[in-house]
Fold:
Amino acid sequence: MTDDQETSDSEDTAASGSATLPPHLRPQSERLQCHKSSVCSRSYFVVVMVFFHVYIINVIALLFYVHYISGQDDASPSRDAPSSDHRHQQPQQQQQQQRTESRRPPSKAEFLRDVSLTRIEGIRVSDVGHVQTVSLVPGKVHEMRTLSLKPLLFEIPGFLSDDECRVVMQLAQLKGLMESQLMVQDGQEELDKELNLSPEEIFNLLDINQDGQLQLREILTHSRVRDGIWLTPENLREIYAGLKADKDGNGLLSLEEFRLLSNDAFQRFLLQRGVKRSQLVRNSRHTWLYQGRGAHQVLQDIKTRVTRLTRLPSTLVDLSEPLQVVRYEEGGHYHAHHDSGPVYPETACTHTRLAANTSTPFETSCRYITVLFYLNSVEGGGETAFPVADNRTYDEVSLIQNDVDLLDTRRNCDKSNLRVKPTKGTAVFWYNYLSDGRGWVGEQDEYALHGGCVVTHGTKWVANKWINIDPDYQRQARYQRLVSRQPEEEEDDEGLALNSDLQSSDIHQDL
Structure:
């Protein structure tokens, strides 16, 4: 046997022998090699896991970034226009120009471009009775209590001081108060001619439940809105008998029976009989007090306080209606109503009508917020009633059932869900519209139905401050731009705000 074979055999034997040895008796070189291999495997696993987690984190970060960018894109049209797809319909060059302009400071004519209407509902009003503090005047804190959620209604005791209440009543008396309602509605005949509706069309409009017959409550609603006369079911039955309208005596009017009546048949019948003040929709006297430049300091202070309370831009408050002051004598009332009506495409807001460049026979006041001040404590009656506050549902037809009329504040005030007792200096305010979810005015809040209960003893003095905002953003923006041009032109020459003829006329009429 050669030396090479011996060497080979010895190596094989050593190899096989070492393979059978336990790990702690193996040569150091072999143990080191095994150790290095396990370390490499664990290191590779750790590196893979690190890269995997980094990848997951990057994906999550990318999703958040895309959500943030898309949220900004969705929100930007609500600031610039009421339509969510308005910006996407414009050319790319115009989009770039809009982005450039949005970074500039807003001018007077475009002050609404970045405005989002603040609502108090975003500040812990989840419970009726919840009390929060508000700072309305320097050095004083007021408490604001939630009275209802439908409508969103708050009460602020001590909003006005005794002296402020006295000054407002004196200014109203100095200005002179007028009847709040006349017997014949102004412009009603012209409106009837302009609409030119046939008896069939009027019948279908009045037939709310579309059953082919007019029930008492359907006729009552029409007469109250049209004529301003508060008829009761008993009054209506007397009119039916006097006009011989209900031929079959079932208390319902068919289309054939309705055709025999003229548009003003009810009003003529009532005029012949005579109408008492208690039969009017409202029985009070009122006046308007100007709150702008040159007005009494108390009136300006009230407007500033309202701006802080509502947290709306001061320009919106400045361009709203003047302060209305109302006096109810004993027996005075105001049946349940909405301060503002729903706005449809064919409806114009009174304050933006001129800027709308459209002609329409239908107008509403578009009062986004009502702030009501009690100027004195009433000896008896005179509560502000909210018949359907916090109801689960709202159904106009169900407001009059079984001769119980929830709208009647002379008879059924005690049946209202909520009544606010008039206390001197206290203010209550509520929203007449819901939010559209994009920072602007939405649909009418039907639960804001309210009225003034009959004053049984003494006199009742109140004041109303309405904030007028058009639910159509473009109409409101055009109106703001139209009004804001005048101060710029006048200030260059005379330093006056608004047109001098309009301004002096307003001061003369509204103190």
In short: Confidence is low (pLDDT under 50) at residues 5-20, 72-112, 184-188, 488-511.
